[in-house]
Design brief:
With about 325 residues, the chain is mostly helical. It is built from 15 helices and 6 strands. The strands form 3 sheets. A two-stranded antiparallel sheet has the order 1-2. A two-stranded antiparallel sheet has the order 3-4. The chain has a two-stranded antiparallel sheet with strand order 5-6.
């Protein structure tokens, strides 16, 4: 929903540069073996495609190409050829050679743990965690990924991009299943300004709740800037793909709590608390985080689920 920018991504990539170079080298070797052992069974279109894929893995920085470079490669090579007569598809051969499943279990959980993405990058409502897992006798520990990886460009159609870091988005299972082969206009690792995806209370909701105390009067809106403005027919909006509105319509209890807090923690009361607990509440950001129950800055929404939603409603209620 909100990009994290290239600086953080480049920093984590830099921490693992040697291993990433090894992954690239191993992938190139495995692709050469596919060509040697199975090349004779491929149709000419598949042979040509595999040669282009191998050429990609001869480029030193291929695995860390940014979104613009990946887009160019996807356009140049196109989708993997489909051969209905093949016992094993070329896509399967490439995915197996690139060792994606092994990396998914071993390396990617560590990588995204360092990147600090702890909430689904699409819906921001579910956790995407990398956690420690101890062996039965606690003699060793591994990092386990409690998330799914969406391939921004589908790995079945573009298998050669399946281990490119800028093509991997940590997401919840619901969003991954909903997106499937759809495409949305979202560069997670880009430096462009965040799109104005916004949550707000529907007109009259606040007044109705304050008058009745009935949480059923609270109505939530999700404003998706792409909903009616996408120029590319191949792209879909966040609302269309992930039904963000439907997800957050279930969160009226969170809104109710924020409304009550906004009534209790008035400016004068917050000032009195700051005076009474000067040492504890000296950090304004932490104090506000305690107040709204989540992070208050846009760049921190990936640290905890529901952060964007709570920020927007809290701003509307003039709590932060």
């Amino acid at each position: 929903m909100i990009p994290i920018g290239s600086i953080k991504m480049e920093g984590v990539i830099g921490n693992h540069r040697t291993l990433i170079e090894k992954i690239l080298k191993d992938a190139k070797t495995a692709l050469d073996i596919v060509k040697r052992d199975f090349g004779s069974s491929f149709i000419q279109e598949e042979k040509n495609y595999l040669d282009k894929v191998i050429a990609c893995f001869e480029e030193k920085g291929f695995l860390t190409y940014d979104q613009e470079q990946i887009s160019k490669k996807a356009k140049d090579l196109g989708k993997v050829p489909d051969n209905d007569k093949a016992k094993i598809s070329l896509s399967s051969h490439i995915l197996r050679a690139l060792n994606y499943k092994h990396l998914r279990r071993t390396f990617y959980p560590k990588f995204f743990r360092e990147l600090g993405l702890r909430a689904c990058v699409y819906c921001n409502s579910q956790p995407t965690l990398s956690i420690q897992k101890f062996s039965p006798n606690e003699s060793s520990v591994t990092i386990q990924g409690k998330f799914q990886l969406d391939h921004y460009r589908n790995k079945d159609e573009y298998p050669f991009l399946s281990i490119c870091f800028y093509n991997l988005y940590p997401v919840c299972s619901c969003c991954n299943n909903a997106k499937s082969k759809s495409s949305v206009d979202f560069d997670l690792y880009g430096d462009q300004p965040a799109k104005p995806y916004t949550f707000k209370l529907s007109p009259g909701s606040l007044a109705k709740y304050l008058a009745t105390g009935n949480a059923e009067t609270i109505k939530i809106l999700f404003l998706d800037p792409d909903k009616d403005n996408l120029q590319d027919p191949n792209l879909k909006s966040f609302q269309e793909v992930f039904n963000i509105q439907g997800i957050y319509e279930t969160q009226t209890d969170l809104v109710e709590e924020l409304i009550l807090k906004s009534q209790i923690y008035t400016g004068s009361y917050k000032k009195a608390l700051t005076t009474s607990f000067k040492k504890l509440l000296s950090n304004e950001k932490l104090a506000n985080r305690m107040l709204i129950g989540n992070y208050m800055d846009l760049e921190d929404i990936h640290k905890r689920p529901m952060a964007k939603f709570i920020q927007d409603i809290a701003i509307q209620l003039k709590m932060i």
